[in-house]
Design goal:
With about 400 residues, the chain is mainly α. The chain has one domain (about 5-180, about 205-390): MFS general substrate transporter like domains (Growth Hormone, Chain: A). The protein has helices at about 5-20, 25-35, 40-70, 70-90, 95-110, 110-120, 130-155, 160-180, 200-210, 215-225, 230-240, 245-295, 300-310, 315-325, 335-365, 375-390. The longest helix is centred in the last third of the chain and has 52 residues, at about 245-295. It starts with a helix and ends in an 8-residue tail after the last helix.
């Protein structure tokens, strides 16, 4: 495997580590800077995630178009450098407003995974794209394994320690990329930068003219809204339902990440050979219907730890959808596609945290008629059902 590909996978893994490092301490950190209860911390957590996602939505297509014009290498290296600085700002933040500012900057520069995916598309044959996108997902899963474990352990030394660790990881990875990363955007696929297509709405309109792209992006959006229930409420859900501390929350996320890495890095190749890309998407959506429903009603912490890694068996959806969509666009628009998918994912991140944390807060507030921490997972079940219906719907034949 070329060193540049190794760097791409390490980049995604460290991105996930940076996210996973801070998840176990976010409830305590928000309560520390606001002085409010857990329910209010969950709402603020939704606000921070939403602001981050708004910036991703606005700037994702811009970054994707820039990488189609100027290359993947400069985009990746610059965003890694700013990411390291952003984590340092959050490490010293003494108010919720400084945390908010940190999320604004972080959202603008959160282009590493989409650019890494475009890089993987550049070097992949059409029939290999879905399984290579699975490697990206596997690297993310491995990072999500390591990150929460380290974050939970570092959280014992204070709520700030994980942020310093995340900054150091991003900086070290940027140095590695400067040494080993090669450029894949050649003159053959380099595309002229156009400001008119550097905003999310214009980029979406341009891609939507291609057959199947609009429906695929809608399914991707619905799945992302449902899937983001994990980062949005898992820490709060674990504390409210099972009384878990940051260490146990980190362990549960690590179990999920281990299985996600196995599914996307190894199992998906076998599923794709057996079911094809369309069948793989159907399998993943059906599986998630049962997984989210089970998590909504589980009351045993031990059973939850067993269900958590099993829930990752549905993680084949994203790479399979990415493979379908990537094959539908030409080589010189892979960055644009990944930028639009970043924006779609960002819209889901805007909608999902606010939606899921609001449902969680309403279902767990001291004045609630019925305490039901699993309510957000039932909402995810409904969204997956809609996504499956859209995916299975056949196009009507055009009139003669």
């Amino acid at each position: 495997m070329p060193l540049s590909v190794v760097f791409i996978l390490i980049t995604v893994m460290i991105d996930a580590m940076g996210l996973g490092l801070i998840i176990p301490v976010m409830p305590a950190l928000i309560q520390e800077v606001t002085g409010g209860p857990l329910a209010n911390a969950a709402l603020w957590g939704g606000v921070l995630t939403t602001v981050f996602a708004v910036m991703q939505f606005l700037f994702g297509p811009l970054v994707g178009n820039l990488s189609d014009r100027y290359g993947r290498r400069p985009v990746l290296l610059i965003t890694l450098a700013v990411m390291a600085a952003d984590y340092l700002v959050m490490a010293v933040a003494g108010s919720i407003w400084l945390l908010l500012a940190g999320r604004v900057v972080g959202g603008i520069t959160a282009a590493t995974q989409s650019t890494a995916t475009a890089y993987m598309a550049d070097i992949s044959k059409p029939g290999e794209k879905a399984q290579n996108f699975g490697l990206i997902g596997a690297a993310f899963g491995l990072g999500f394994v390591i990150g929460p474990l380290i974050g939970g352990a570092l959280g014992e030394f204070g709520t700030r320690a994980p942020f310093y660790a995340a900054a150091a990881l991003a900086a070290a990875n940027g140095v590695l990329g400067y040494v080993v990363l090669t450029e894949t955007v050649t003159d053959r696929i380099r595309r002229r930068f156009d400001w008119r297509r550097a905003n999310p709405l214009a980029a979406f309109r341009a891609l939507n003219l291609l057959p199947g792209i609009g429906r695929g992006l809608l399914i991707y959006f619905l799945y992302q809204v449902a899937f983001f229930v994990y980062p949005a409420v898992w820490a709060y859900f674990g504390e409210a339902r099972f009384g878990w501390d940051p260490g146990m929350i980190g362990l549960s996320l690590a179990l999920f990440g281990i299985m996600m890495a196995i599914v996307q890095g190894w199992l998906i190749r076998r599923i794709l050979r057996r079911l094809g890309e369309r069948g793989t998407v159907i399998y993943g959506l059906v599986f998630d219907l049962f997984a989210f429903t089970a998590l909504a009603f589980v009351t045993s912490g031990t059973l939850a730890l067993i269900l958590t890694p099993l829930a990752a068996l549905g993680a084949v959806i994203t790479p399979a959808l990415q493979g379908i969509l990537s094959q539908a666009v030409p080589d010189d628009r892979q960055g644009e596609l990944q930028g639009v998918m970043t924006s779609v994912s960002a819209v889901a991140m805007i909608v999902s945290p606010m939606l899921m944390t609001s449902v969680f807060a309403a279902a767990t507030h001291p004045g609630a008629t019925l305490s039901f921490p699993g309510a957000p997972f039932l909402l995810s079940t409904a969204l997956i059902a809609v996504a499956l219906a859209v995916f299975l719907r056949r196009d009507r034949p055009a009139p003669a």
